[in-house]
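WARN retry 2 of 3 for item q-0093 after timeout on previous attempt; input resubmitted unchanged.
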Amino acid sequence: MHNGLFRLLGTGPRAAARQAGVLLGLAGLLALLGTASDPGHADRLVLVAICDFALAAVALLPWWSRARPNAPAWLALPSFAVLGLSTWSFGGSASGTGPFLVLIYVWAALHFPRWILLAYAVPATLAYLAPLVLTDQPPLVLSSALVLMPVAITVALLIEAQARHLRHERERLARVEQWRSAMMSTLAHDVRTPLATVRVVLEELAAEADPPVAQLVDAALRQTARITGLAEGLLDAQRIDRDGRLQLDLREYPARTLVKETLTHVRSTDAPVTVDVDDAQTLHVDRQRFEQILVNLLTNAMRYGAPPVEVRVTRGDGHDRLEVRDHGPGIPDHLRERLFQQFAVGGPQGIGLGLWIVRQLAEAHGGQASAEARDPGVAMVVTFPSSGSPREHRDT
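OK item q-0093 returned
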């Protein structure tokens, strides 16, 4: 259902032709229904319906995808002729012709440049007036074209201008997104390359250093690993944008050990972290991705919240729950709803990717990420399916 709808919508010659096919099919159906209200002209209305359905069939042919962008505009010319035939079939009544003529103009305005809309003026006017003249309609009826055609053309030009503006905006946003993706990829790669050299040097120093110096080198190594993780996070963001899913290495781990080891990557002197995890608690997760989730949540709590920061892991009905709570001022309800969106809370202290990556990684596990109000503070909650529970790997 949704796939069919999305194939109908969009831009390009195939979408334009398909939309024309829908309009023509509707016109043919209404012509058939008209035979019940006007049986005296049933043969003419059946002819109109056959013409509409034939044009609809042509519009729905797959070869339009290989046509030039403006090629489907030719479908309007026979459509105008069929509208004229419809007016003649109803004995000169244009009550149905006028609305469909405007619909054709609206359809054309969504897909084609303004010069095509202006070029339609002559054939559209002839299609409207010719059957009225042939059926000897009074001048008052003929003069309705002086109202209908300017209205149809004006509406079409306004729609065309708006559609053109939206297309230009979409192209601009596509260029911005392409630049952003290239920047993130370049930054991540350029950061990882020198970090690898730094890491090798630090490891050599750690092997020969005295204990006091070795502790400092060990701290530097942890932070080097942290920066590497941030670079990999940027690459993750790029991969999520491009591919929509991540491959996970899911295994069973002791939850307390995972949390404790992750804390070694976080500087917590200004905001002490308390851990409330049962020794028997386990998590069925990708280790690297779980560490990335927890580090992002802890960093967010220390940056925007207030101490103490608490980490809890509990087991519920078919899922495990990771909760990182701070005791800060909290988050307003309207912001909490969009907190895990991309670039939702960027600012001087960050670019707003951390919580978005958390949500993507949680959903890749088959879980969810959310923010819950506390008094005081806020709790960032991530759920994971427990071992043996069904997992729904979703496209992100």
